[in-house]
Specification:
The chain has 120 residues and is mainly alpha-helical. The protein has a domain of 54 residues: NADH:ubiquinone/plastoquinone oxidoreductase, chain 3 (Methane Monooxygenase Hydroxylase, Chain G, domain 1, Up-down Bundle), CATH 1.20.58.1610. Helix content is 70%, strand content 0%. The chain contains four helices and no strands. This is NADH-quinone oxidoreductase subunit A. Keywords: Cell membrane, Membrane, NAD, Quinone, Translocase, Transmembrane, Transmembrane helix, Transport, Ubiquinone. It is a multi-pass membrane protein.
Length: 120
């Protein structure tokens, strides 16, 4: 066997032992809460006793805005490498980016026409 394989195996086993020891040590050193009432109670943003019912329905508009944000936010992931290599890509790369931005703009127009961005 190679020395690198032996070293990797030893490191892997050592990490396993260390993680196991940390979990066991946490069980003994960590705080204990024996009261089931406190253990199962709601704790939200520093408030122990929240006011109101937590079983409310959210509007679909929140979902639409979140998905729209993700769709239009991901465009930056594609635009940044293009902007770095715009000189090497030449005119064909420029045309492809205009097509990409045009499709994104068409999606924005579609979302606007469906009134997903209006809060009535």
């Amino acid at each position: 066997m190679s020395t690198q394989l032996v070293l990797a195996s030893v490191i892997f086993v050592l990490i396993g032992f260390i993680l196991s020891a940390v979990f066991v040590l946490t069980k003994f050193v960590g705080p204990k809460n024996e009261e089931a009432q406190l253990k199962n109670s709601v704790y939200e943003s520093g408030v122990s006793n929240p006011v109101g019912n937590t079983n409310i329905r959210f509007s679909v508009k929140f979902y639409l805005v979140a998905i729209s944000f993700l769709l239009f936010d991901v465009e930056v992931v594609f635009m940044f490498p293009w902007a770095v290599n715009v000189v090497e890509l030449g005119m064909l790369g420029l045309v492809k980016m205009f097509i990409f931005v045009g499709l994104l703009f068409a999606g924005l127009i579609y979302i606007y026409k469906k009134k997903a961005l209006s809060w009535d």
